[in-house]
Amino acid sequence: QVQLVESGGKLVQPGGSLRLSCVASGRTFSSVPMAWFRQAPGEEREFVAVISWSGSTIFYADSVKGRFTISRDNAKNTVYLQMNSLKPEDTAVYYCAADPDGSWSAGEWYAYWGQGTQVTVTS
């Protein structure tokens, strides 16, 4: 059974940092892109960042560029999202996704999803 399990979400003050992790099991994802999406209450799910299997190609949403960093450790079947300078508008459930069959920034192309981890940015 394929599983993606996110962790690391918590309540943090504006300007703070968090590191999210997503561990894959059931198969190896070392040869496919992996991504982070997020969904705030009452909002559509949105793309955050994606990384190619080798890590050589990375894309970010404009809203997080310069503040968030996506990385991966294929030996651990894990993808990370380092989030710095967090803002209240970053509050959302963050989802890990893997193995897109189309556009890397469109959630509908991803075959595998985690259950999400809550990030809340508030003072």
Fold and architecture overview:
- The chain is mainly β and 123 residues long.
- It is 0% helix and 49% strand.
- The strands form 2 sheets. Strands 2, 4, 5, 6, 9, 10 and 11 form a 7-stranded mixed beta sheet that branches. Strands 1-3-8-7 form a 4-stranded antiparallel beta sheet, with no helix packed on it.
- Strand 5 (46-51) and strand 6 (58-60) form a beta hairpin.
What's the layout of helices and strands?
Elements: E1 3-7, E2 11-12, E3 18-25, E4 34-39, E5 46-51, E6 58-60, E7 68-73, E8 78-83, E9 92-100, E10 110-113, E11 117-121
Parallel strand pairs: 2-11
Antiparallel strand pairs: 1-3, 3-8, 4-5, 4-9, 5-6, 7-8, 9-10, 9-11
Estimate the global geometry from the Cα principal axes.
Answer: globular
For the biggest sheet, the summary is: 7 strands, mixed
Query: Helical stretch count?
Result: 0
Radius of gyration: 13 Å
Task: Please indicate the percent range of residues in DSSP E strands (runs of 2 or more).
Answer: over 45%
Structural class, from helix and strand content? mainly beta
Number of strands: 11
Element-by-element helix/strand order? EEEEEEEEEEE
Uncertain stretches of 5 or more adjacent residues: none
The helix fraction, in percent, is under 10%
Overall average residue pLDDT: 95
| End-to-end Cα distance | 40 Å
